[in-house]
Each structure stands twice: as C-alpha cells, then as structure tokens.
Amino acid sequence: MSKTITKLDLVNHLHENMGLNKVESKEIVEAFFEEIKNSLVNDEEVKISGFGNFKILNKKERPGRNPKTGEPALISARKVVTFKAGQKLRKKLATIQSE
Q1: Are residues 80 and 98 in the same domain?
Q2: 39: Cβ–Cβ under 8 A, 6 or more apart, which residues?
Q3: Most buried among 44, 55, 62, 97, by the most CB within 10 A?
C-alpha cells in the first residue's frame, strides 16, 4: 500500500490539528523545507531526531553504458542526496514488518 504525502497534506494537518490558519500552516511547511534545502545546498547534514539523516554525497565520474544501445558512456560527477533512517524509525518499521 502506497501513500504520497504532499505539502498540502502537511498544511492541512497543521491547520486541523494545531489550530493554525492555512496561511500560517503553509508558511511553516515552506520554511521547514526551505531550511532543509539550504542546509543541503551548503553541504550540511540534516538530522531530524527520531526520523533520520539527509546528506549530500559527491559521486565521482565513472564508466557506464547507454541502456538503449549498450554502448559505453561516461557518467558525469554529481552530487546526490541520501537518506538514512534513524534508529527509532528503523525499530518502528521492524515491528510493522514482523506483524
């Protein structure tokens, strides 16, 4: 079962459960994600207690192949965002998995 959580879902959750108006809720959600983006752009690790860590990895240039033609191709160096689940989240997932 899959569920996508959107920014609008978060805004509505804050509005309904915290009593904030929708404008305030939207500002909080936008500020939260902006802070995460800014930290990652500045190569800072983002740690969310009880959830996990986001960080930037610098991938080196490496050989690869074109999946359509099978011809060798060079994969350029790039930065990627990685996520590692925190211990509390991993434990929660493990209890769900064992049910």
Answers
A1: yes
A2: 45, 46
A3: 55
